[in-house]
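Entry:
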Amino acid sequence: MVDKKTLIICVSIHHGNTFKIAEVIGKELDAKIIKPSDIEKENIFDYDLVGFGSGIYNQKHHVSLFNLIEKLPPQNNRKTFIFSTNTFGLKTLHKPFNIKIIEKGFNIIGEFTCPGFIDYEFVKYFFGGLSKNRPNKNDLIAARDFAKEMRERIK
């Protein structure tokens, strides 16, 4: 349990890969998990730490997260973390979103990513999908460990 309030804003569309990660992180941080469309029901200023998570679509986080950031007021150095699932677990794919949230005034204190199963038509046809059975048990343990680091960083 954490004495700081944490909000996780997560988009998980195709297989629920990213939501699995959000649930593990959320449990460790005692966080509320919502979709970007639900932020109007929440006051982001009520939270000490805000996490943003998404699968990676066309080399970046889901467009709904970018749209949400555009609508938010300046954040005055609010602590945040970013997470994703993507075919190969590449953190470099966070860069476009990182730029946007830094411009909005967020302070990124951590990033997490792991592979997530993908079976779009092309990869399904040729490979039967990539990163099968991911995130797996080890990915979920790594997500929990990441959440523990975030908890330490906001103390």
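The longest strand covers residues 106-115.
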